[in-house]
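Methods — Computational structure assignment.
A single polypeptide chain was analysed. Its primary sequence is given first, followed by the predicted tertiary structure written as structure tokens.
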Amino acid sequence: MKRRDVLKTAAALAVTPFVSPLANAVSLSSRNVSQENQLKTSSGIKRFGDGRDWFFEKRYGMFVHWGLYSIPGWHEQHQWRARVARNEYEKLAQQWNPVKFNTEQWLDLMEEAGMKYITITTKHHDGFCLWHTSQTKFSTANTPYKKDIIGMLADACHKRKIPLCLYYSIADWNHPNYPNQGRHHELPSQPQDSPDWDKYMEFLKAQVRELCTNYGEIHGFWWDMNVPQFKDPSVNDMIRKLQPMAVINNRGFDEGDFGTPERDYDNVASEAKSFERMTEACQSVGMESWGFKKDEDYYSDRHLISSIDRYQSRDANYLLNVGPTGEGVIPQEAAAILRRIGQWKKKVDESYQNVQTDSTFVNASGVLVTRRDRTLYIHLNKVPVGSGLKLKPINVLPSKAVLLNTGKPIDCVVNLSPSDHATQQPFLRLRNLPVDEFANTVLIAKLEFDRPLEEVVLTTKSDSSIELTK
């Protein structure tokens, strides 16, 4: 799923201001200031002001890449990367029989991991469809399995009131009308094809209409790989008309509703202090593939947790991906990672809920900050260099300090450190943090003050009576 060429545009859009057309339809002049603020997050990102606002509440979702490529178990772009001829790749459809696919087990794991919604590939670049489409025979309907996978998952999600979002690849390595030209994430020109972009768009729109009509309420549409960079806002307009709850990403035929920084490719989005539009980062537990890989290498818990914290503490959503096997089972190693992250998330989740992001509040390397009322949450996002943390310019002791990861009190002092001798200014220090014991996670401290946070920095003067560090 690497998309380096597309991500340059995606990264820029992730930090580009955007106002929904539906929001613009309401006269701003008729709103007072308080009403206008209700349409913004605490960090100032504009809400949609309609049914799509579920996206601002759920925040953390499961991404699933699943298709024929799960059978060889090498990469979701197996056909392209392994240089497999189309007629050979198509034979995998006769092996497609994921008899162990169980929607309830997937959703149980999702909820156990603390995830609130799910996004699944309905059609990846190989063109194989996981639903009963009338537009092509290259679908699950014409396999030994025969069942409508998207229909099964949609029914399960509706029953459990879990938002379902649908991924759809614009690039298509199977359809004869798609103009494969050997560009990035495309096959070379195929002699048996009849490239015709207009006809392909008719096919695409018909498939989108099926997905937005036949499966009840859909909460999102996740475009991918618009290689020709074709613009046609009418496609997203159709989705919004058919599915008004659906949020749409920025990889389709217009800017969509939200940006999509991927993995660790986008340093701008990764290191930005904040975002000016809604953003949903995406990452996979596997280092090589988004689909199932038989001998996959997995990211460390610390790497994934740090990535989740880095985006959620800046008011962004996060999609974490797993690739089920050809039988429909989420690999044991991947499931264990999700569960461990879920245990961490459950303990620290309050630091992301209804908070304001404000990482300029303290001057401490590798630290991100969220705040609510008189409470500060200190996220040790990057690997701490030691067991102590100085929180300049705060020089007031909190009334209560707790490490969310353990629920235990934190040792706090306000005193003068030798490194601050020039200014003779004492600062708040967190001490004896269990950085070695929790080296594979992100520590988050909750500091509660007896005064407004704007008053936790006091004007001090050089004074020989200032307490020294002990």
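Note: Confidence is low (pLDDT under 50) at residues 1-37.
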